[in-house]
Design a protein that fits this description.
The protein is of the alpha/beta class. About 35% of the residues lie in helices and about 20% in strands. A seven-stranded mixed β-sheet has the order 5-4-3-6-2-1-7, with helices on both faces. A seven-stranded mixed β-sheet has the order 8-9-10-12-11-13-14, sandwiched between helices.
């Protein structure tokens, strides 16, 4: 019989299990979470229909709804961590209200989520679905038809993403106004998504390079949405780099501050009802920002750049590059055009997330200053 080296063929088995499990959740199938106390069936709330809901209940009538600390804060519940609510007797419609309604007050008993339940909730969030889950405990009998993940592996999944980074392809791609431009595609992280380094001009490795970390924004970058400042920041940064003789723009696949495009559009709907961007995310169960920028630091290092002049308004990006071992010697602001649709968004980023904007509301594109 042929000897098969499954480790070489499939990689780390725990990481493989998580990647398969995330795909299962997004496909609407529950997964089994193994933990020190046993195992539980985890179903993402967003994918529940009446049939799946009934099937989970038939597995074990003692169902629990898991909610994030952000969602519980919005509901003014006293539990400060993630919480679990017994919902075995509730209808799917009532549970949907607990997960999504903006004015719901939770009058059911909420207990602090166990370590395993917190892992289950984080696992659902990593799938870019709504961060709410229905779970039931299972006995110890084997269920090989389900994807199975370990609670202990979920905690280290994101932090190990940098180790998976690989250069996939690169080529010259002339842009309007910037003909000397190269796209370098890296692959890695959860789902092995593609991250792009756009090298403007001929920056010299070993010298200080102008850098912009830009998270993908489909609505702003591609369609010119007036709801945010992303498109202006993207094109303005490229223009500034061209004028300065070179730079690197890192375009990261982290739509909606790491929550995914579907949740971003849900948040936009809540913003239209009068909530600011961070309150809208909290209603949906998200914290202020779920992005990670350690991948950006590693991409720069792989390209040979360790001394950075960073174009950003976000202190988290500055700290991430420094924590990644890079030398951030200066920062520059990236100021977009304010309009009647994005002025509240810009103000919320400044006042609630500490973004380094000027206080004036009439700032203009590309007014930058060293600090």
């Amino acid at each position: 019989m042929t000897n098969i080296n499954f480790r070489l063929l499939l990689g780390d088995p725990e990481r493989l299990a998580i990647e398969r499990g995330l795909s299962e959740l997004r496909s609407g199938r529950p997964v089994i979470l193994q933990h020190d106390g046993g195992q539980m069936l985890v179903a993402a709330f967003e994918t529940l229909d009446a049939g799946l809901f009934a099937a989970v209940r038939a597995t074990n009538p003692h169902m629990r709804l898991l909610l994030t600390p952000a969602r519980l804060r919005h509901m003014k519940n006293e539990v400060k961590t993630a919480g679990a609510v017994s919902v075995g007797e509730l209808s799917l419609g009532t549970i949907e209200e607990l997960v999504l309604a903006k004015d719901t007050s939770l009058d059911l008993n909420v207990t602090a989520a166990t370590v395993a339940e917190q892992a289950a909730l984080e696992f659902v969030r990593l799938s870019l679905l709504l961060p709410a889950a229905i779970v039931v405990d299972l006995d110890s009998s084997a269920r090989e038809d389900f994807a199975q993940v370990k609670a202990s592996a979920i905690a280290t999944f994101e932090s190990g993403a940098v180790d998976t980074l690989r250069l996939a392809s690169r080529a010259l791609v002339p842009l309007q106004g910037v003909e000397n431009c190269e796209f370098v595609v890296f692959r890695g992280g959860e789902g092995m998504r593609d991250q792009i380094a756009v090298v403007i001009g001929k920056p010299a490795p070993g010298e200080a390079v102008l850098v912009r970390i830009h998270s993908a924004c489909l609505t702003g970058d591609l369609f010119g949405s007036l709801k945010c400042d992303c498109g202006d920041q993207l094109r303005g940064a490229v223009q500034r780099m061209a004028e300065a003789g070179g730079g690197i723009l890192l375009y990261l696949d982290q739509e909606g501050r790491g929550n995914g495009i579907a949740n971003k559009i849900r948040a936009y709907g809540l913003q239209h009802q009068g909530h600011d961007t961070f309150d809208a995310d909290e209603i949906l169960g998200f914290e202020n920002d779920h992005r990670r920028f350690d991948m950006a630091a590693e991409m720069l290092r792989r390209l040979g750049f360790t001394t950075i002049r960073l174009m950003t308004n976000n202190p988290l990006k500055i700290d991430a590059l420094k924590d990644g071992g890079l030398d951030v010697i200066t920062t520059q602001r990236v100021i977009a055009r304010a309009n009647g649709h994005n002025s509240a968004y810009i103000a919320a980023k400044r006042d609630r997330a500490g973004h380094l904007f000027e206080k004036e509301s009439s700032v203009v594109l590309l007014r930058t200053g060293e600090s």
